[in-house]
Design a protein that fits this description.
This protein has 911 residues and is α/β, with parallel strands linked by helices. The radius of gyration is 38 Å and the shape is flat.
């Protein structure tokens, strides 16, 4: 390696070829160009004339210099020049690459993979050995760790993927130490740790091991790509409070959080803003109870990781529970049965007190009936038949006389224990049977029973008994009635008959019963463990459970840490559903400390060594082609048309850089300066998207139109180029056949210049797709128009609108469609009511909807979908088809409205 300051050469001996340039100069001068041959018929007139024609002795000096430059470029390229910034040291040691691939690395994984590829390519270029190791367990045996050729490291990198659980840096440190002791990592190494930027208890141990092997460089993502994590939300009086954590705290950051239902439809959305230096930020979402109970998950927009999604199980569902009261008991609350029910269910349900009329009017899903409020009203029977849950508690009145609203038949004699039937010792609760909703709940030795009502043995079948005492007598029985349930506690809800209401077991039993109000069943797996139903992958998508997953014992579920055997996701235990998430109550997201042993820190976008061999060879090839063209032209061997074209090209290459910028004229005749992007749009087919000032929305628009352009290229004869951002206040719009305009709620009226531009664009035949992107929460407007859309449309000349009719041209410009979904569906899509009255040959100049088409069209860097949509891949495909139809409509207008196409359309419809 030969260096001249920051410039070094991988093969310096090749520079000796520069010494041959003088010899090449002499050879080129000694070789004259080929003589020109010309046919001149009247040669006889020249026979006697003196011959004074001269043939040049050598090529023109400028052509010789061009050829010498080509030779010099090839020689320098073969010497493999490398420009190394002063902050980057040239490496000759073998490379060890350590990659964090836990959940925290998912957001920056494409950049981390690219950096690892660069490190492997650099080692291969320098002839150095490479070893690659990832830090997250996979549930399978890890490959052997050893120094090898770059191809082996490249294959390991191709198979590496981020995992949905934390990295295990301690286990990685042990692997590296074992490999060192086995001489698989011998000698001094150049170590690069591609970190996710999140601290862990074993980060220091890993850094200490790596420091003992050689120079350690830690590369971590910047603040914009640092991981984010959703903590458990907190219920508030009018909604919920959401907390978001982050590790990178150097810069302020704003991220949107969306509350999703089981069907994937967004229920609410709010922005969370971090100030510089803050690691935790919160936001409040106000929702009525009915909407809040529909929330199945929370998701951070713009980032993809298992921690950016928060699944909510039954613990978050707060059903409406009605407590039937026939008389006031507020004077002595500790003597009231309902006092203990309120204390047990208060954190998990929305409680209402009142008589039966008031509770049924509130549409409760569970009724709680104590002994002093018992009733045999027919409306309770109807409530149960319609899917309601009745939870009853025994007492002296029920012991004296039963009724029909019971799961079992009570004994006629001795229903109330006491007197001659009183136990010598209080009875304890036996282990819950495997078929009970209470299966898996830990027992409580403090819960003893003094009295109970007894069931007839023949009616207390095993499927109806959910809890027993140690002597085998039923404590809780239940029966399915039509679509609902009747559940009976054979003791009082107060401590009169037992200590159960005073124990910690009582609220947990009642919480399990609230799951019946969600339509659950009472079937419980035989092992009493939580079983993974659907897992979260590293990108935050719900997928099938991996083969490494194992059931989680219910006794340890609340303290379980996610891992390959217990992945994050939705777990079920009979009718109950519970979520296991990345961020727990004690999870910390602190940045990596800067005092790691022997570590120097860098960013993913830090200075890098630059190799110039490939660019130099490319430049030499272009100049060589130019030399051939010039030589053929000088020899007269190019046809006139090619020679003229070559000269024009050469002249353009010289003149165009000095030419003044191009100008056009607007509709008023004033010159308009066009940017390079607008010139490209004028020369190629491109779609445009209107910028809003919100980087998240603008990036989504660009990704959506890029994905749509790719699909149009793949499915049709059109070949659109990547889309361009458009500012309606300053850019010329006429070059775009279609504009996608996302309209935010705070969008203001257009200025005079912008209004004139948009109106002129529509009058000239342009098409604008207005998308408010809020079909998921449009219900919250209660029928009111979108405020931002009203401001925009009031600024331009838009005729009367109507919903797209079933026979509109948009339904058949390319695909036959009757629905127009995007990320969402179900809301109307509007076009001009009478396009025949416009000056655009019967086509509508606007399409207005709220389905967030850009998100449905968007594709990620890997080619996959950029975001989930509520209807799955089928809905995404229909959204893409609608996008293709829009593009065809923008380019062909009402072409498919011609009656000549009717036979073909009918044939496609099978008619």
């Amino acid at each position: 390696m030969f260096a001249l300051g920051p410039l070094s050469f991988g093969a310096p001996l090749a520079l000796a070829g520069l010494l041959t340039l003088p010899v090449l100069w002499l050879l080129l001068r000694a070789t004259p160009p080929a003589p020109k041959r010309a046919v001149f018929p009247p040669l006889r007139l020249l026979l006697g004339a003196p011959d004074d024609a001269e043939t040049p002795q050598h090529a023109p000096w400028w052509l010789i210099l061009l050829r010498l430059l080509i030779a010099a470029l090839i020689i320098i390229a073969l010497a493999r020049p490398v420009w190394t910034p002063p902050s980057v040291e040239e490496e000759t040691r073998p490379a060890l690459i350590v990659m964090d691939n836990g959940w925290a690395a998912a957001a920056a994984w494409p950049d981390m993979r690219q950096e690892a590829e660069r490190l492997i390519d650099t080692a291969e270029r320098d002839g150095r050995a490479v070893a690659l190791v990832t830090t997250a367990p996979t549930g399978q045996a890890a490959p052997a760790l050893r120094l090898g050729n770059p191809d082996e490291a490249r294959r390991l990198l191709e198979s590496a993927e981020p995992q949905a659980w934390p990295a295990d840096r301690g286990a990685t440190a042990d692997r590296i130490a074992d490999a060192r002791s086995n001489d698989a990592l011998g000698g001094e190494l150049a170590i690069t740790w591609l970190s996710d930027g999140v601290d862990s208890r074993d980060a220091v141990a890993l850094s200490r091991i790596l420091d003992g092997l050689g120079a350690l460089t830690v590369i971590e993502p910047d603040g914009g790509r640092a991981p984010l994590g959703l903590a458990a939300p907190e219920a508030a009086a009018d909604g919920l409070t959401i907390s978001v954590r982050r590790a990178g705290r150097d810069f302020p950051r704003t991220v949107a959080v969306t509350a999703l239902g089981n069907d994937g439809r967004a229920i609410a959305r709010s922005d969370v803003t971090f100030a510089a230096g803050e690691g935790v930020a919160t936001t409040d979402i106000s929702l009525p109870l009915d909407l809040r109970n529909r929330i199945a998950s929370l998701r951070l927009d713009g980032t993809a990781s298992a921690a950016s999604v928060r699944l909510l199980g039954d613990q978050w569902q707060r059903p409406r529970v009605g407590l039937i009261t026939l008389e006031s008991d507020e004077g002595q609350p500790l003597l009231s049965d309902l006092h203990y029910v309120r204390a047990a269910l208060g954190p998990h349900a929305q409680l209402s007190n009142g008589d039966l009329d008031a509770l049924l009017a509130e549409d409760v899903s569970i009724l709680v009936m104590t002994d002093n409020a018992r009733s045999d009203d027919q409306r309770i029977v109807d409530f149960i038949n319609d899917g309601g849950v009745l939870i009853r508690f025994a007492g002296p009145r029920l012991a004296a006389h039963g009724d029909d609203l019971l799961p079992v038949v009570l004994r006629e004699g001795g229903r109330l224990f006491g007197g001659s039937l009183n136990w010598d010792e209080p009875q304890r609760i036996a282990a819950f049977p495997d078929t009970s909703p209470f299966a898996g709940l830990p027992g409580d030795s403090t819960a003893t029973i003094d009295r109970q009502v007894l069931a007839q043995p023949g009616s207390a079948t095993p499927d109806r008994v959910w809890a027993r005492l140690e002597d085998g007598t039923p404590l809780v029985t239940a029966e399915r009635r039509a679509r609902g349930w009747i559940v009976l506690f054979h003791v009082t809800a107060s401590p009169d008959w037992s200590d159960l209401p005073l124990s910690g077991l009582f609220p947990r039993m009642l919480q399990r019963l609230t799951g019946l109000a969600q339509g659950g069943t009472a079937t419980i797996p035989g092992n009493g463990a939580w079983v993974l139903d659907r897992a979260l992958d590293a990108g935050g998508q719900l997928v099938a459970a991996p083969v490494t997953a194992r059931p989680v014992p219910s006794a340890t579920f609340d303290t379980t840490v996610v891992s390959p055997v217990a992945p994050p996701g939705l777990y079920r235990l009979g009718s109950a559903a519970s979520a296991l998430n990345i961020i727990g109550p004690d999870t910390r997201m602190d940045p990596l400390p800067r005092d790691l042993p022997g570590a120097s820190f860098a960013g993913l976008d830090g200075p890098r060594a630059r190799h110039f061999d490939a660019p130099l060879l490319a430049a030499a090839l272009i100049m060589l082609i130019l030399d051939v063209v010039i030589a053929l032209g000088l020899a007269g061997r190019l046809p006139m048309r090619f020679g003229t074209a070559s000269a024009a090209i050469l002249l353009a290459l010289v003149v165009l850089p000095m030419a003044p910028p191009a100008h056009a004229q607007d509709s008023s005749g004033r010159p308009v300066e066009l940017s390079d992007e607008m010139m490209q749009a004028a020369l190629t087919l491109r779609f445009g998207y209107v910028t809003t000032g919100d980087a998240t929305i603008d990036n989504r628009s660009r990704a959506g139109l890029t994905g749509l352009s790719q699909e149009i290229f793949r499915r049709s004869a059109m070949e659109p180029e990547p889309p361009l951002a458009v500012n309606v206040n300053s850019d010329e719009l006429i070059f775009f056949p279609m504009l996608y305009w996302p309209v935010t709620r705070d969008a203001g009226p257009l200025g005079e210049e912008a209004s004139r531009r948009v109106s002129a664009y529509l009058a000239a035949g342009g098409l604008i797709v207005f998308d408010t992107q809020d079909a998921d929460i449009a219900m919250l407007r209660a029928g009111a128009p979108h405020p931002g859309l009203v401001n925009v449309l009031d600024s331009i000349d838009v005729p009367a609108l109507s919903q797209i009719p079933s026979d509109h041209v948009l339904t058949r410009t390319f695909y036959l469609l009757q629905e127009f979904p995007g990320r969402y569906t179900g809301s109307p899509v509007w076009v001009e009511a009478n396009p025949d009255g416009a000056s655009r040959d019967g086509t509508s100049g606007v399409i207005i909807g709220s389905h967030d088409w850009a998100t449905a069209w968007a594709r990620g860097e890997s080619g996959g979908a950029a975001a989930p949509i509520e209807g799955g891949e089928r809905q995404r495909e229909m959204a893409i088809r609608f996008g293709v139809n829009i593009a065809m409509y923008a380019l062909t207008g009402n072409y498919k409205a011609d009656q000549v196409h009717v036979p073909d359309i009918l044939e496609r419809l099978g008619q």
